[in-house]
Amino acid sequence: MFSGIQPSGSMHLGNYLGAIKQWVQTQSPEAYYCIADLHALTLQIEPAALREQTTDYVTSLLAAGLDPEICTLFVQSQVPYHAQMSWLLECVATFGELSRMTQFKEKASRQHGYRVGLLTYPVLMASDILLYETEQVPVGEDQRQHLEMTRLVAERFNNRFGPTFTVPVGVHPPAGARVMDLQEPTRKMSKSLSTPLGSINILDEPSAIEKKIKKAVTDTDNEVRFDWEQKPGLSNLLEIYASFSGEKPDEVASRYSRYGDLKNDLASLVIESLAPIAARYRELRSDPSTLDAIAEQGAAKASAVAGPVYRRAAEAMGLF
Ligand code: TYM
Measured from the CB, is residue 19 less than 6 Å from ligand 1? Predict the structure, then answer.
């Protein structure tokens, strides 16, 4: 099992429900999770902010329940094989394939003179995944296309250079795989694009969570029904509820007849579920030397797996 998260902006409810909750539930000695700081370099980000946010993300993942005694948690740039493997795979993927990626097209259209790293981003992601002989990648829906790219590159490599990589599959949670913006429910909740009211951050104060849920955009007909087409705002709230309670969104809908009641209960459920994470975060964040030691130990464990896979790939390609 392998997955990653980019340490940019604040970790939000989409990240938590789409990915991190699954990571925590399925963690094992064969699970590897990374803070993708190399990926964050594709954004306009201040060095001091990147450093700070990387520590914040290590802390948040531990606070959310990842246990470094059980799984491996590390920072991508501390394991140099990721960047090295990325070069090998850049010589396998094509420009046409990368320039057709939806996220690339969206991000490139918003930046004048975008960096090459934005184009090659999925190749670095494929490298992350393939270095750990990964079978399953727990991610949100928005990563589906990148996962397909990873499979394509792995298969092409294996056909051209002999069996080298395990071909992974993406796994998505039954509810919460695509959490939408609370103010614009036809767009996903996002670290970079959501407005403050559109996104719930996992460290938000209870009063902020309550305000954001109460102000979430719904429709005016006041019938509680799970229907993404007609009722995206309400369906998003039902899905968030279902993801926390472990029910189906339909079941949640059947218990409510008024939007206000659903919003009140959802606010309590989200506050109650996130409060222990925020409390643990504050405790852990006050001890940076322990966080550094956890990251260092994680990088050593990750390198021990990634090194031999990198060497196998390099040799298969004919490197000396
Ligand atoms: P990132 O940092 O954008 O998101 C981290 C995880 O959160 C999921 N996610 C969502 N899930 C549901 N609803 C949403 N609104 C939502 N927004 C984000 C993402 O699907 C992801 O699982 N490139 C990746 C990080 C990465 C990675 C990897 C992932 C680097 N290497 C290798 C998997 C495997 C990214 O930027 O995710």
Answer: yes
Summarised one tens digit per residue, pLDDT across range 50-81 is: 999 999 999 999 999 999 999 999 999 999 99
Domain ranges of the chain: 2-171+287-316, 206-282
Cα(144) to ligand 1 centroid in Å equals 10
Nearest protein Cα to ligand 1, atom 9: 15
pTM above 0.90, yes or no: yes
Convert the pLDDT of each residue in 253-267 to its tens digit: 999 999 999 999 999
Secondary structure of residue 33 in the 3-state scheme: strand
CA atoms within 13 A on the CB side of 201: 19
Q: How far is CA 223 from CA 16, 220, 256, 269, in A?
A: 28, 9, 9, 21
Q: How far is the CA of 287 from the centre of ligand 1 (A)?
A: 27
CATH classification code of 2-171+287-316: 3.40.50.620
Catalytic annotation, pick one of 21, 105, 191, 211: 191
Is 149 touching ligand 1 by the criterion CB < 6 Å?
no
